[in-house]
Amino acid sequence: MKRFRSYLLIAPTAALIFLFIVLPYVTVLIMSFRAPADGQPYGEGFSLGGYAQFFGQAYYAWSLPQTILLGMATTLICLVLGYPIALHIATASRKWRGLLYGIVLSPLLIGIVVRSYGWTILLGNSGVINATLRNLGVIDRPLPLMYNNFGVILALAHVFLPFMVLPLLSALQSMDPAIAQAARSLGARRFTIFRRVTFPVSMPGVQAGCILVFVLAISSYVTPALVGGMRVKTTTLLVVDALIDQFQWPFGSAMALVLAVSAGLIVLIFARLTRMKWT
Amino acid sequence: MTEVSLRALQKLYGKTLALKGISLDVAHGEFVSLLGPSGCGKSTTLKCIAGFEEVSDGRICFDNKDISRKLPEDRDIGMVFQSYALFPHMTVAQNLAFGLEMRRLSKSVIAERVAKAMEMVQLTPYADRFPKALSGGQQQRVALARALVIEPAILLLDEPLANLDAKLRNEMRGFIRDLQKRVGITTIYVTHDQDEAMTMSDRVVVMFDGEIAQAATPEEVYDRPASERVARFVGNANILELPVMAVRDRAAGGFDLTLPGGTPLHLAAPAPWANGALRVMARPEQISLTDPGFGQLGGRVAKRYFSGGHVEYTIDTDCGPLLVLGPTTQAVHEGDAVGLTFDASRLWPMAPESGAKP
Ligand SMILES: Nc1ncnc2c1ncn2[C@@H]1O[C@H](COP(=O)(O)OP(=O)(O)OP(=O)(O)O)[C@@H](O)[C@H]1O
Ligand SMILES: [Mg+2]
Prior knowledge:
The complex is a heterodimer of chains A (about 280) and B (about 350).
Chain A: H1 2-32, H2 49-56, H3 58-61, H4 63-91, H5 94-105, H6 112-123, H7 128-135, H8 149-173, H9 177-185, H10 190-201, H11 203-218, H12 222-228, H13 235-245, H14 249-273
Helix pairs in contact in A: 1-14, 2-14, 4-8, 4-11, 6-8, 6-12, 8-11, 8-12, 9-10, 11-14, 13-14
Chain B: E1 2-13, E2 16-27, E3 31-35, H1 42-50, E4 57-62, E5 65-66, E6 77-80, H2 92-102, H3 107-120, H4 136-148, E7 154-158, H5 166-183, E8 186-191, H6 194-200, E9 203-208, E10 211-216, H7 218-223, H8 228-233, E11 238-247, E12 255-258, E13 264-267, E14 277-282, E15 287-290, E16 297-306, E17 311-317, E18 320-326, E19 337-342, E20 348-349
Parallel strand pairs in B: 3-8, 3-9, 6-7, 7-8
Antiparallel strand pairs in B: 1-2, 1-4, 4-5, 9-10, 11-12, 11-14, 12-13, 14-20, 15-19, 16-17, 16-19, 17-18
Helix pairs in contact in B: 2-3, 2-4
Magnesium ion binds next to helix 1 of chain B.
């Protein structure tokens, strides 16, 4: 009876999870094995056609490593840029902390479309940077800042930086300041303390931040679409293209699943490699 | 030989003076406690000695060398924090090895010294555990061993027992004290618990509001407190204001006081500030209960608390309510009339409080 009642308590959550997470996945899974058809989203019967098309054509297949590398580069840049920010905020006086916190969070208040569009204004061939350099006579042909991996990674890193800083900050702030003092009293200097104590102790935050940014980056659509101008082919762009423009539901679903499974595997491997026995 | 010497130490936080000129000498191998209420500057003093806080004025000398400007990592100190501050991502053995690795000792020397230190604090079976998997008392011992394994010149402890339960705290008191004597290390220990300070220290430094009120042996601080505030902080104190009938010897001590009811009371201690009346302190155990009509002062039992080893009474007298500690064998109950006898040899005169502190 007691057990039944506790099941009753989790029932609403379980229903929500089933309805909005499990069911869509199952639908996509089934759809990915549907036979393709002309003139309609999918046809009768089942086939492996969607997967064959993805892995069989280099144009599509190469988008997967391309997307994953893009995600990894974005994650790395966010970590390298975000760690000093988080460290600085964590050690700032209370007065400054609130302000810095606000600055880090502020990009989230502006829509992702607006921010991505902002980058196109900066990076475009006749954008602010190229125009300035050309008028100064530094260059006579625009630098390729947009419509390539560089531009997309830059914009993605900007868009997702807060998602790296926040977990790092929470890890650093939950660290007892006496730990660093203890290390000093034992004779460790600044850099040694960072390398041997602060960074390893903040590892749960590093892990969370990296996973978050990686997953967000590889599944993002707006930023690669706007800044990459459809010339940087990520799997996510291809999925949307297949589902909405080409009307090939089985093919789109197959690609979406391949991307999700690949991302899941990479996250698992990453978590395994950075496993902490001490938490 | 003086190991640690604080000379007129001042510490300014913004506009508040947290330390108002602390001067203290700690001898080689001595165990000194800094005792005082919350906010009196104990931790600040310790942080200045460790180097985590820069002193605003004054000097800190180790072995007569001024180290006020040295960084903590260069001061050769071992420190134990209230939160233990163990490295959570390192095992017990790795925690202990850290300080030795910083000193660039060879692997074999490190292993040997870590093993010895773990034995010293009886943690050998836990060498490969992470701090999270240890009890509070075990973590405490790791922190202690980690501070000692580097064989520092000075050991600093900031309320290391505050997070332990009462029984473990008692055990650890003895453990730390024994260890300190065995190693012979100069130790400065911060606590706000007067029992802890009394039982462990060679010398107790009582601090109030950023100043040292008294620095003396536990017996001295308890029996001959420098002020009423010290008297009340280090234990229960009955303060009686009694008229002086005669001064026998001002310098060596010798006053005839009189209790309400006319009974004379002889005070053997020197009290150069005697001026018509004297305030004297009697600890609860320095007053004994007798049958009514006997003793030096009459009273009535207002409250009686049994606390295992003894009984605590509050006795209403003409000198106000007095706290008295009696043996459990005495059949005295609330409401009973009693007589009180003072242990005159241990009565201690109080200096009038400087300034008008309530
Ligand atoms: N970082 C700081 N900034 C400003 N004021 C401080 C700082 N640290 C301590 N103080 C002030 O200095 C005074 C002494 O503080 P300290 O921490 O030394 O007290 P304590 O005797 O250790 O007390 P407790 O028993 O509560 O630990 C307090 O009034 C405190 O408010
Ligand atoms: Mg303190």
